[in-house]
Design goal:
- It comes from Streptomyces coeruleoprunus.
- This is Uma2 family endonuclease.
- GO terms for molecular function: endonuclease activity.
- Residues 21-141 form the Putative restriction endonuclease domain.
- The chain has 3 helices and 12 strands, in the order H-E-E-H-E-E-E-E-E-H-E-E-E-E-E.
- The chain has a 6-stranded mixed sheet. A two-stranded antiparallel ribbon has the order 1-2. A two-stranded antiparallel sheet has the order 4-5.
- Strand 4 and strand 5 form a beta hairpin.
- It is α+β, with helices and mostly antiparallel strands.
- The protein has one domain (30-61, 73-170): tt1808, chain A, CATH 3.90.1570.
Length: 178
Amino acid sequence: MRAALHGLGDTVPGTFEVTPYGIVHDMRAPNGPHELTVARLRRRLDAALSAGLVAHSGAPDVENGAEGILRHPDIMLIAEKDMETEGSFDPRALLAAIEVVSRSNPDNDWVGKLRDYPLLGIPVYAVFDPRTGSGAVFCDIHPTPDGPRYATRKDFLYGEDVTIADWTISTRDLPRYT
């Protein structure tokens, strides 16, 4: 599936991810509130992180070929040394994955990635939802009959401080979708 996605190049708009259930095509065109949320979160996290760690947004993606999963988090907390690789990042190198819910496909963040990220071994998953001005942080991966899942969920409202892994940031002034 990865080869098919690369074959599309820039001929089809949107982003593509691979899951065990097929290809996810998000038709979203980058919009101001989504991108501004990513930028503000990234700056706040970078200011809180210790030396050698970064809040990275952009390419490449994270992939576990054995599980048939290729995902692209909006923000990845990762050590700089773990970015010194060719191709996709190893998802087990991520300290956390952060998603800003897409207006066009919210189930991708709230359902699909919530299922896939613990399977990839990403220890912390934070979701920011500009539709509702709320979010949640998931952690503590544990086995279930349906595969690994997060055992702990901590909900928050925009305006509150939120802790993602070992770092606490403000959610003040994050934009909402109108």
